[in-house]
Amino acid sequence: MTTSTERAGSGLDDGPLTIGGRDFESRLIVGTGKYPDNETMVEAIRASGSEMVTVAVRRVDLDRSSEEGILHHLDPDEFFLLANTAGCYTAEDAVRYARLARAAGFNEWIKLEVIGDEKTLLPDVQATLEAARILVDEGFKVMAYTNDDLVAALRLEDAGCVSVMPLASPIGSGLGLVNPYYIREIKDRLEVPVIVDAGVGTASDACATMEQGVDGVLMNTAIAAADEPVSMARAMRLGVQAGRLAYLAGRMPRREIAVPSSPVGGMLD
Amino acid sequence: MTETTTNPTRDTGRINLTVNGEERKVERGTTVAGLLEELDLEPRTVVVERNREIIPRDDYGEVTLRDDDTLELVHFVGGG
Lengths: 269, 80
Hints:
The structure holds 2 protein chains of 2 kinds. Helices cover 36% and strands 16% of the residues of chain A.
């Protein structure tokens, strides 16, 4: 028998987030970019409770010390590394970056991201799909960043992606969840986990996103660019948990008229 | 490009590489492991691509660099 405290803490018997056969207790995935310094990054990631963290693949800067590599600061035994293909504008480039990431020797997972427009950083869905098919065929576990477009999401699932990751709003914008209806539709129709990736600005955005019933949220800038990243990381952790719990609890129906909470009877004459 | 006997890079037994977009000369016979050592990079944190083909880490000690090789040395950095 569970106590009410245990129920609240465990999120109404909520199970782990299972992606590609791997269980994660946290439904929050965080990026490692744009932090003021590496110490703050590590402290913020710990405060977020995230187990999976994203990293980018870039040239080693030959003029500087090798200390700039993130693995000098982030223990790959403590966090599950999800390499991304950020910055790629073609399927060919994304496949190249994914192969390089896998050769680093940690895992065969990739956050596939193919950008189609420099100004909005919106994804090139067709190129993403093309790259996804190649990478799945090569044995990658692909988590695909995509638009809030149901048909694109269905195609990516069909292609064998282990997770489909529609955006809340453009990368780094902090605009929050602009299209809850489409996000709910994608979640309703897909079988693989749906992780909302990009656009969350603050904890209420994370909460509102999770209230749509999605499986998780991925964010970077909202934490890294906060005045106090460690505190924001904790706020995001709580926001994600609150949103998840509220979703599982089942919200009351919306009404356009007021309904009193106190008894209407028993009033004094 | 025309090779001449006055070209010092040919005479001194050094070969030309392009490493991360920059020209670089190394001794003929240098291996990938040797290049990484010269650059003070830890082999376990660097992935090496030569002429668009990834070189497995276990082969760094055996793979000898060739004249005009184009190398990309990459690693993980912060990103979202």
